[in-house]
What we know:
Layout: H1 25-32, H2 55-67, H3 71-75, E1 79-85, E2 93-97, E3 103-104, H4 110-122, H5 130-141, H6 145-155, H7 157-165, E4 172-173, E5 178-179, E6 181-182, E7 202-204, H8 206-217, H9 224-234, H10 242-246, E8 254-262, E9 265-274, E10 277-286, H11 290-305, H12 308-315
Antiparallel strand pairs: 1-2, 1-10, 3-7, 4-5, 6-7, 8-9, 9-10
Helix pairs in contact: 1-9, 2-11, 4-6, 4-7, 5-6
Amino acid sequence: MSRVRLRPPGPRKQLPMTLFPLLPRPVLLAAALALSISVRAEPLDVPDLRAAHDPQLQGRLERVVRDLGIEAAVADGRLSLALVDASRGAPPRLAMLNGHQMVYAASLPKIAILLGALVEAERGRLPLDEERLSAMTNMIRFSSNEDATRVLRWVGERRLLDILQSDRFRLYDANGAGGLWVGKAYGKDGAFQRDPVRNLSHGATAFQVARLYYLLASDALLTPRLNEVMKATLSNPGIRHKFVKGLESRPGVTIYRKSGTWQDFHADSALVEYGEHRYIIVGLAHHPDGGEWLARLAAPLHDLVVPAVRQAGLAR
Length: 316
C-alpha cells in the first residue's frame, strides 16, 4: 500500500471565528486553529480493534438478531453488523456478523471524504473556511450529493484513495477484505476507479467503518483539534431514520453519525455516547426492509453496552 508522506506544517494562520457558523463554539476555536496544528506522523498507541473480539458480546449480538427474526438475512449475507464497546477506562470489545464483507454502502462512504478533507486541512492544503465547512456539514448531516462531490474534488479523487489505503489509516486493503472505498463522485459521472475486491463504486465493510469511528473516539484518527471538528460535523444528524430513529427510545444519548440509502441498500453508522459509556454501531443491509431492520436493532444494541440499571440511574 502507498504511504502518505507528511510534510511540516506551514506558517501559523489564524482564521476568523465568523467563518464557522455551523459548529458549536467549543469547536470554533479548533477549526480556526486547524491550519496551525502540527501533523501527527504516527498514530497514538491504542488497542488493535482486530484483536478485540469478545465472545460474550458476540453471543449477545447474535441473540439480538435472533430475537428480531432477522438471522436469515445474516446467513444470506444481506446484513452485516459491527458493535464496539469503546467505553472509557476499559479495553474495547468487538462483536461482528459478516463484518469483513464488502458491501455497497450508498452515502455512508461520504465519511471517508470528510476524513480526506481534514487530512488535507491538516497538511495545509485545504483551508477550513466557511465555504468548505458548510459543504462538509451538508455532505454529512443532510447527505448532500452535490456537496459530497464538491468536497471530493477539493481533496482529489486519487488522493482520497491514497489516504484510505495509506499505512497511516489502512482503511482499505486491496489484498484483503477491502474496507472504505469512494471510487465515484456522488453525481451522474461514471466511476473513476471501482474497488479491487468487489468492483464497487461506494463500498464499505462494517469492521473498517467501526474502526474509523473507534480511532476517532480514541482521539487517534487526526490531531485532537481536527478530531473535534470531525465529531462536530458528524453531530446533530439532519435525517432522523435508522439508528437515530431507533435510539429515540433511549433519551440522553449523543450521536455522531453517517447513513446511506440507495434503492434496497441501507447503511448506517454511529458513535454513541451515554455517560461514561461509549459504543459504535455499524449496519449494512441489502433488502427493502433494511432501513427498518437498522431502526429495530439500535435500542437492543444500546442495551448490550448500557445496562438497564445504569440507564435508570442516569434518567433520574
